[in-house]
Amino acid sequence: MAVAAHLCRVFAFFEIPSPEYHGRWSSVSPLFRKSRLSVRCSSGESPSSSTSSTAESDFDAKAFRHNLTRSKNYNRRGFGHKEETLQLMNREYTSDIIKTLKENGNEYTWGNVTVKLAEAYGFCWGVERAVQIAYEARKQFPTERIWITNDIIHNPTVNKRLAEMEVQNIPIKDGKKQFGVVEQGDVVILPAFGAAVEEMLTLSEKNVQIVDTTCPWVSKVWNIVDKQKKGEYTSIIHGKYAHEETIATASFAGTYVIVKDIKEKFKHAVSKGFDPDKDLVKVGIANQTTMLKGETEEIGKLVERTMMRKYGIENINNHFMSFNTICDATQERQDAVYKLVNEELDLMLVVGGWNSSNTSHLQEIAEDHGIPSYWIDSDERIGPGNRIFYKLKHGELVEKENWLPEGPIAIGVTSGASTPDKVVEDVLIKVFDIKREELLQREAVAA
Ligand code: SF4
User: Fold this and answer.
1) Which of 15, 245, 295, 304 is an active site residue?
2) Which of 83, 249, 319, 372 has its CA 20 to 30 A from that of 61?
3) Which of 180, 215, 250 is the C-terminal boundary of a domain?
């Protein structure tokens, strides 16, 4: 049976038939007849890696990584240049405007613009660490070619800066990474989201210097899916199936299903040879570290209830395991926006990379509270004049004229975990300029 048809059967038990559903309802097993979720049965292709497959069930990905981390060509702690690289990052990424806000209880008024900054926002510990280790790698290997398997983080400003430092992304051709460009003597950085185990295997065979900046919160999820694999549980991974982190997590899982979200576009992928009849007897939940916590919990509860119905409450521990692997930084930023949207605000500015998962959820929270919210990745999305080009929570790109209301305004501001303060400052300066121009014009008319 085609993978797509499998998928429709897998998710039919969550499903209310919708225009997005393309499966065969007649093939749904009784376990899956109670349906609640919206499903899109798309191609069903597994997240792919461009390297040789290690999907065979007897490959122990965790043991392989464990050995790799002990090899002489591997580094995940930096090279002793921490202080100077942090100083450099401070010069490049910090902001006086954010400093003023922090010194004034996260609220300050410039002209007729009051800015209210979320209590938790911007660079997280894992991102700062990853960027700093990448800077260290450049310092340690000044003449060697340095590659990176994906963008270090989801922020165009930081990625551009690394490109200026001649840290090159592995080229992609026909959707596949060209690891052939990497030669002995080169250095390869694994980004904060980690890398698929197949890629690590390829690099290990090439005997290159690996600099691993994977956030420990991400590798914690790998340990969880490994545990599920060893217990013969199918991993239901709440994540975005094309996101680098989820691709990496899936590579450490045994049998898996990737679920994007509970309400809308619920995209997914499954492991090779997935069979819903035998692979949904024992299931475990795991999630991409940057998902919306409430949604992960809802998915977990739904799956748990279904397994209870099928196997009995008394047997649930033999059929279901769940871990919340949303990281603290993601959680704190979400909590801060939930708090901020309850204040008197004219609008929200959400600053972060357009491919940043954690930023998308900050935008989602603001939108769901009915506040005009503008998600932009840099100040270049503002202008000319009072115009903005921004993104909505589901990815629609929108252009809007006169987005800043006339007169005094209060703006809520937050930024994703991979956004430097300097990027937020540049955005706010554009806002101040527009409002200053408005005042000048009003004075000119009155004169
Ligand atoms: S958002 Fe969380 S998982 Fe991602 S880098 Fe930051 S701390 Fe790590």
Assistant:
1) 245
2) 319
3) 215
